[in-house]
Amino acid sequence: MTNAYRVLNGKGLAVDKYNKHFQIQFFAEEFLELEAEIAAEIEERFKPEFLVAKYRFKNKPASSKVLLGNNPKTIVEENACKFSVDLLDTMNPGLFLDMRDARLLFGKMCEGKEVLNLFAYTCSFSVYAKKNGALKTVNVDISKKNLNRGKENFALNGLLPLPGEFFCGSSEEYVDWAIKKGKKFGAIAIDPPSFAKNGKKTFSVAKDFEPLTIKAASLLEANGILFLATNYSEWSGENLRKIAMGTGCKILKSGTQGKDFTSAEQSKENSMVWLVSSPLNSKSSRHF
To answer: Is the dihedral of CA 168, 207, 199, 95 positive or negative?
Structure first.
């Protein structure tokens, strides 16, 4: 159960609900003429406390405009987990709605395990893991701001951080350190942005995802779980499949976005794919 989901999913237009807060995302300029009509319909149907329009046109800087309300922050609930959301904190409010199914599946696989969450963002995967009995989660992100929001999410769920659960730095840096120290994890999540800047360096899914995954997989325990995901528009599930199999893991389950993201006309924004694999000789239960 959740009070945060996608209400409308189209090729050039999307409407998202976060509790009583809503956002309209415009990906094609031809829909701008409908902005007032769409906003009026949302106000009449849902009685929102806050409404913002976000403009994400190709080759133009992203921008936003508040249409209703003055407090962009709210708390959403998802499968008995709580998350802080801020609809004016960049284009991404703090929780990716299309990863709901993946978070739930991964969390249920983490009972009794120590978890490594790379590119942790606001640590939603770790919240699910700890709520499902994970012993410890190490959250790695280059943004101190993101990790502070992750700590807020821990607090919202009554989770007390253990020493070493938040690492501010690059995922590559942490993995290299963990290998040297002989660390092992029962579950590892790797869900990077398509591009991520770290000083003069830039992480790119196209060139860096595979080598990072291969190194990270060496940190898995014998019965470990490896979760891979990407929204890089040039890749499909087959790319993740090849990377996972290249680590010696077998695929346990795979999928894409939730049912609220299905549409007859998919856009590049709707390209997230994920899979869960393990070094055990497990039988694959579903393929792309």
So the answer is: negative
pTM above 0.70, yes or no: yes
Which of 84, 85, 79, 83 lies closest to 105 in space, CA to CA? 79
Instruction: Indicate the length of the chain as a whole number.
Output: 288
Write the pLDDT tens digit of every residue in 211-224. 999 999 999 998 89
What distance in Å separates the CA atoms of residue 208 and residue 228, rounded to the nearest whole number?
13
Domain count, the chain: 2
- 221: domain CATH number is 3.40.50.150
> Does 188 reside within a domain?
yes
Quick one: which of 96, 94, 133 has its CA closest to 115?
Answer: 133
Residues 112 and 47 placed together within one structural domain of the fold: no
pLDDT 10s digits, 111-162: 999 999 999 999 999 999 999 999 999 999 999 999 999 999 999 999 999 9
- From residue 14, how far is each of 6, 8, 11, 235, 272 by CA, in Å? 7, 5, 8, 22, 16
Q: Give the rounded distance of the alpha carbon of 121 from its chain centre.
A: 7
46 and 177 inside one domain = no
Q: 32: domain range? A: 4-78
9 & 140 share domain: no
| Residue-wise pLDDT tens digits, 183-212 | 999 999 999 988 877 777 888 899 999 999
Give the bridge partners for 204, in sequence order.
195
